[in-house]
Amino acid sequence: MATNGLHPLEALLRERIVLLDGAMGTMIQRYKLSEAEYRGERFGDWKGKDLKGSLELLNLTRPEVVEEIHAAYLNAGADVVETNTFSGTTIGLNDFLFQGEPTRGRKDQEFFQRVVDDADLRELVYEINFKAAQIARRAADRVANETGQQRFVGGSMGPLPVAGSISPDVNDPAFRAVSFDQLRQTYFDEAKALLEGGVDLFIVETIFDTLNGKAALFAIADALEKIGRKVPLMISGTVIDKSGRNLSGQTVEASLISIAHAEPLIVGLNCSLGPDEMEPFVEELARVSPYYMSAYPNAGLPDPLSPTGFPETAETFAPKVAKWAENGWLNVVGGCCGTTPDHIRALAKLTQKFSPRAVERNTKHT
Predict the structure, then answer these.
(1) pTM above 0.85, yes or no
(2) Are 278 and 271 in contact (CB under 8 A)?
(3) Which of 40, 83, 86, 97 has the smallest number of CB atoms closer than 10 Å to its CB?
């Protein structure tokens, strides 16, 4: 594929609609792993909270499971697989892995400063992210060699369990559990490890608080400068309900303006909503955004009676999302919570006949 000086991913975006993978958690749940399997031999004597549910820890204790899931998505047609690092930060993993002194009240900035400064936790988080990038890289390169089609690894950086601009205490609206500098530090550790592990792009995703997202972008810029590499950036926000706003109160257009300084290659929406509820916001963002457009909704709204926890099957999900491609709104498409390789395979089949959304760009990502 001739790139004409463009990053290979951008060259592919100009050629056709790019397929992203689906949910990691949905797939891990299928393995029904026990507490002992999450712990593995290395963490068999771990003190504190149970480790079952710490998906990122599986990069160290059950890497073959993670790689198998990546391979399933790649074989279903995904061009980009995301590392298993959605919560892979010191703050994101503190409930499972922080061995320091616990807080006696609500978690505040003093507590989170201990978390982000904890040397053992930072070392473990680095290892988790570095190994996650290597696992995804190995799967992507193997399938690329088998098919003759380049595959990409996206470093997943999720939203964190705390927000920089919102109080978690309704009785104290001025309270902030974390500072911007703490957010930046926790994201920097993750970004540096992902970059050194070999990711092709960063994916800052499921942004419900714009300030958290901006901290991640600051950290990524810092990591890129320190490592001396350039990789593209994908940013994906989250609309939390039919109001069309994120949790910090911004519309999709306002969020777009807030992150434009980072010069992303791709901007889009994911999570929170299914295709029915997300559609008007995808249309709106596609109307105003000067960037390549991505969308990867949940498989509907949560439904505990469904096998995946979400009601949309591949057969019902794919036609709804493919309509966005038919409307000329998309450059990147995939699935979020509740989606599986079957969903991605169905999307690949339906979207391949549609042209990608036209984007005029002057910035080259090399």
Answers:
(1) yes
(2) no
(3) 40
